[in-house]
Amino acid sequence: MFSPERILDYYGIYYVRAGSKLRINCPFHTEQNASCYIDKNFSWFCFGCARHGSLADFLEQISSENKKKFAGLNSLQKMLECATILRKARAGSIAEYIKPACAEKKNVQEEKENRLKAWQHYTGLPAVDWGKPLKGEQGEAQEYILGRGFEPWLLNRSGCKYNYNSRYPLIWPIGDNGRFKGWVARTTAAGQEPKYLYNHGFAKRSCLAGLYGSSETVVVTEGLLDRLKLNQAGIVKDAVALLGWHMSEQQEQRLKSAGVKRIICALDNDDAGSRGLARLAESFDVLQWRYPIGVKDLGELSGEKLKAVCSTNLSLFAR
Ligand SMILES: [Zn+2]
Known about the structure:
Blueprint: H1 4-10, E1 15-18, E2 21-24, E3 36-38, E4 44-46, E5 52-53, H2 55-62, H3 64-70, H4 75-92, H5 109-124, H6 136-147, H7 152-157, E6 161-162, E7 170-176, E8 179-186, E9 196-198, E10 209-211, E11 217-221, H8 224-232, E12 239-241, H9 249-257, E13 262-265, H10 271-283, E14 285-288, H11 303-317
Parallel strand pairs: 11-12, 11-13, 13-14
Antiparallel strand pairs: 1-2, 2-3, 3-4, 4-5, 6-7, 7-8, 8-9, 10-12
Bound molecules: zinc ion.
């Protein structure tokens, strides 16, 4: 039924479990260490800024959109408005149900530390609303990413932030079926290599970026941005990025143990993509994604064309 986790996922806020409570970086003041606690009824208190309140208070303050909605309402009307937001959160979240590094016990110390550092770096950056005009270098990064056909709601929902690194200004968290694995930053400068920068110690080979295992079929892309385009077209579950063209043995094992049997291969429409497809076909039943002529990857598609390509492909593969 009611789940504080869902609300936090919906707004792209990462949490750590602290006993029966959830601990988050306070969205209402700037902080490096999470000091805001939320209980299972969503009663919350921040030890940093002493703000506190109910779910309604939280939702009212969390976005300017909500603030407008709540303005002038009495408490009953506010509760009804909360119920609507809860319904939306249940239905529409594409947040990756990321759980932070410290929840992970099995991994070796160094990997744990790298992941924790990555989590601190990412959560320490302020949230960005990509729908509002930004200034200076942030504005340039915004112009770049919107120019590639990414819609502001998708950028907000996927946790895209400004990285304060002029060569790699855009950063996303990477979640593997609900678990925070690290972050990836994207360059916006033509000719800058590599195009993607990962956090120190990040192991691509043991990570699948996205959600999988809710059905036997999964759509596979190369890059995280390609997978985000799938999300933008409404394909949220069962869509993962390999973070390269070659599926590793560890990635194969993860898919198999999640019950995946069939792969819709949306790797790039080039030589490396074909090699990647052959690799996938060694272990799974593979169907090949159809691209319009001249299109190299999902990242190039946007708007209505993106939606049309995705729905055509899905209907091709539906039984
Ligand atoms: Zn606070």
